[in-house]
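Appendix C reproduces, verbatim, an entry submitted by the partner laboratory led by Prof. M.T., so that reviewers can inspect both the input and the predicted structure.
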Amino acid sequence: MIYLDNSATTAPNEEVLSSFIKVNKRFYANAASLHLAGKEAEALLDRSREQILSIIGAPDGQVIYTSGGTEANNLALLGFARKYKSKGNHIITTSIEHPSIMNAAKQLEREGFIVDYLSVNEFGMISLDELTEKLRDDTTVVSIMHVNNEIGTIQPIEECAKIIKQHSRAIFHSDTVQSMGNLPISMAKIGLDAITVSAHKFHGLKNSGALITRKGLLPESINFGGGQELGVRSGTVSVPDAAALALAMRLTTEKNMAANYSNWRQRLVNYIKDTKDVLILAEKNSAPHILSIAFFRIRGEVAVNHFQENGITVSTSSACSSKNGQAGHVIDAIRLTEPYKQGVIRISFGENNELSDVVKFEEVFSSFARILQRGKSNEME
């Protein structure tokens, strides 16, 4: 089976798996304990933090280990908004964020915060002019994802950072779950205050992620316990997960498959774009590893099943919402026309893919397109 659903999750790297087992056996002590075994675990935890901060271009920053991207996004939006409520109750995010941001924003609205959701154009791009207009003196948090998980649009976060710093005192957080390992990220260079990463999106392990913040910036805690992770995220820290996260980040950064992904994506765009009744979503300004297309008056599940029967795994949209049978909020936000709304599928590359997988996809796509056209011809007879 050719796996082309890497935006949902990736296969764990063998080296990461091996390291996870070794660290579990050797460093199983509680890193908060004062005995020698605890100190050794704490030292490995700190080395993992240093490695992550070096990779992410924030050598003086702070790593708060979490259970994954959802918890880190929740912690960023809820934690910063609540902590700085005395300075203002206005939040800005976009209309195409991951549900872990969207639903946290809805919770803040229930608590009395005012949230502005930036609109996007048909390619999924926000407007920098709208961002500038929405910023207010009481804006405390702006959260804009780097790469959209459903259609792959890359937001201009460096330009966003400049505008936010120039026109407000707001904290700028970015969900970089989909861009980590696929696009270069330097927090200091870009001007980001906080980012979210999730290990299983770059061949690490599930239930492992982090909120990374610049020096001295910490959100208010959203859980309560022993005060681990700088008092922000209570609970015994998993040292093996932390070490595996750092290793997965290093390996994916060193391997750097972006050029291959970009070539494969463009090859598919060229192959598909003239096919009747098929639209390419976010054709430009999209991440190299994500390609979303939409079929005319065909449900995405039909296409997914055809590809699966021919040995290829693709998805209908975000794995987080693909089972509810409804067009997602991202598809609504880009105002895809009604006949195409239910026919979206996503192809996403990972480090285990090869050019031959792309060639096979082209063959299966062509066979599906022929079936669709035969069906339409029969309808007309």
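The mean pLDDT is 95. Additional entries are available on request from the coordinating office.
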